[in-house]
Amino acid sequence: MLHRAIFLLSLTLTHISLSVTASELTNNTVNFVNSLDPQQASLVLFKFKDEERFNWKFVPTARKGLPLKELNAQQKQLAIIVLKSSLSEQGFNKATSIIDLEEVLKVLNNEAYRDTELYYLSIFGQPQNDNIWAWRFEGHHLSLNFTVEQGKLAAVTPNFWGANPANVPSGDKQGLRVLKLEEDLARELINNLSAEQQKQAIISNKAYRDILTRNQQQVSPLANKGILFSALNSEQKAQLLGIISVYLNNMPKDLAQSRYQQIQSHSINNLQFAWAGSIKVNQKHYYRIQGDSFLIEYDNVQNNGNHIHTVWRDFKGDFGRDLLQEHHTKHKH
């Protein structure tokens, strides 16, 4: 298990797809906007300060923005290029696999309303002119929020990823587990703890019904519970960092490296790992990893423990809030 965790850590530093150049994401977004007709542009473009920027959801519901469904083939291709520019290769593949699960649900549950093209783009600000702007890609089980500063992707939270089914039970995709590592590595860690360590790490014998932060616009640190990084042995520490690396690896290389270095250099011993529910396979469970500046939440409770929700939140940096504050400090308006 230690070898596996160390291998995952190496992914963060060497095997994420090549980082986006300073202008590539902005140029790709401008190309997409320029392809739209006036009606489409009116749906996708918002002011940067619009409150809609903070109105994120991960359930299947009506949304503001422009759905893939209302784009022609060329526009869809340009939209996908923007998404691909905002994620690592792993993150992009994971996003498209989550979207594909809508077709699985349509067949499994006879739910005709499921639609792989009901994923919406929203752009906040003017990519071609503004020093800071943002965009969102969102639909069922995906809410990816990106903030761009000086033409470079600078913040990617909140980012939410879900999988239903977590393990596809039948059909062409039987056995597919889109969020496999998020589940398996955490269970390996909790089972690798001693009985005494598990008493610290397991904060409830019953899993919570969902991630505790839901889709709150801003979050604060959760209860100070769980086992501290400093209380783990070297193998367990590598396992915990391996779990974090799975989430980091959804981000472009430069941003992932920066976040990883921040975690290592800022109070790493204060990281906490907390578990709720069963530690057995195919049972309902929840875990979280909390640091001084961020929170990862995961739950697998719905559908008898076959429905995953995961999210990364930054206490000060969600929606690029810290970047905006720093920008206003440097540039008095």
Provide the descriptors you would attach to this structure in a database record.
disordered N terminus; 38% helix; 13-stranded mixed β-sheet; globular; alpha+beta; 11 helices; 333 residues; 2 domains
In short:
With 333 residues, the protein is α+β, with helices and mostly antiparallel strands. The chain has helices at residues 2-15, 24-34, 38-44, 73-86, 89-108, 180-192, 195-201, 234-248, 253-265, 302-305, 321-330; strands at residues 45-46, 66-67, 120-124, 132-139, 142-149, 152-155, 159-163, 202-204, 227-228, 272-277, 285-290, 294-300, 308-314.
Structure in words:
The protein has 333 residues and is an alpha+beta fold. Helix content is 38%, strand content 20%. It contains eleven helices and 13 strands. Strands 1, 2, 3, 4, 5, 6, 7, 8, 9, 10, 11, 12 and 13 form a 13-stranded mixed β-sheet that branches. Helix 1 crosses helix 9 and helix 2 runs antiparallel to helix 4. The longest helix has 20 residues.
